[in-house]
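Quick check before the chapter quiz. The format below is the same one you will see on the exam, so make sure you can read both the input and the output lines.
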Amino acid sequence: MGDEFDYIAWLRKQAARHPRLAVGIGDDAAVLKFPPAGVPRAPEGCLVTVDMLMEGVDFLIPPATPEQIGRKALAVNLSDIAAMAGRPTACVVSVALPRHGGFELGRGLFEGIAALATEFGVAIAGGDTNTWDGPLVISITVLGDPQGTGPVLRSGARPGDWILATGSFGGSLAGHHFDFTPRVREALALHQAAPLHAMIDVSDGLAADLGHILEESGVGAILDEGAIPVSTAATAARDGRSPLEHALGDGEDFELLFTVAAADGAKLLADPPCEVSLSHIGEIVSGTGCRLRSADGTLRQLSPAGWKHGFE
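Here is the expected output.
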């Protein structure tokens, strides 16, 4: 079946040429064109993000296919670039492939990565391959261009801001976590339509990721229980947890959670700049922590439930 160099040779033949690549796969490092040609006033800097997926932690084989895993490994990184309102441009991929069946597994991973990379115009610039007796591990680093007024951080939320979200939440393990579309286009449209004060993609859970914005911004929040968009999968779940609990804590929704001035929020809802649904789910307030407001106005403290990688 061959070794890692046979796999790299196969990858070089598969990887498409890309206008941002001056030197691609096959040298000691890739050479990328920054800033893009013909854009003299592009915001300075380069967005860089990396995410690692591990068999037995982030997916199981089966039921996951190599194509699904490869696609997701790139998609979660594109979602991070979207959370900064940036445009992804290139990626590098590192894989630890099992010795048994690793070559065919690697082919499938590349096919999943390449399909999504083509969809978003991302250059596959290179990476690293290893084989071992352990499970599959895949790590992708994505580079991106800041857009408009520059990256949107987690630290800009202000008291009085509206909290808005794209899409719906909960029940992602029913399949959404493999087939979601990163909200890159939506983030760019929102960034152009209104000044975004703070933004994050919901990977760990709605409550947990809102908590990251609150911590970085030094503010608190009130969420309206009835305004949180709950997914069909969360409503259909039958595990003793309510649909709302799923929506707040499941994670891997990969929707955008962002804050804007109230007037800008009202404009975005009245004239949405993207096709994905937008919901006004709460407000930023002074203080710390997050509270959940029920239909009768009762407030209760909301813990930042969500996924965490732990130690023993």
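If your answer matched, good. The mean pLDDT is 90.
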